[in-house]
Design goal:
Length: about 100
């Protein structure tokens, strides 16, 4: 009977070892990268988005420029056009043009 219990315990340990945390981490990582890819291609409301969201969704806009967008919006009111972004240091007409399909109000 003790021998049988030992075999059952070893079998259970083998099954538990087979379902490893590495497999679970790989699955989570794959889902995360897919979700990020989908999110990046969506548009963003430049009048309500956080700096982090702006940096994620707008091409050529890093966190510092995104923070400048939020500060400009706070100091000057809501954006009425995408071209107003050019009033912010470091944001050129080319950057605005690249993001026209991503920007909404």
């Amino acid at each position: 009977m003790t021998y049988l219990k030992g075999c059952i315990v070893l079998c259970l340990l083998g099954v538990i070892g087979f379902i490893s945390p590495v497999n679970a981490a790989t699955e989570v990582s794959a889902k995360t990268s897919i979700d990020t890819t989908i999110t990046v291609n969506e548009s963003v409301n430049i009048n309500t988005a956080t700096a982090e969201l702006l940096a994620l969704k707008l091409t050529g806009i890093g966190i510092k420029r995104a923070q400048a967008i939020v500060e400009y919006r706070r100091d000057n009111g809501l954006f009425q056009s995408a071209e107003q972004l050019q009033s912010i240091k470091g944001i050129s007409a080319a950057i605005v043009e690249k993001n026209l399909d991503r920007i909404r109000f």
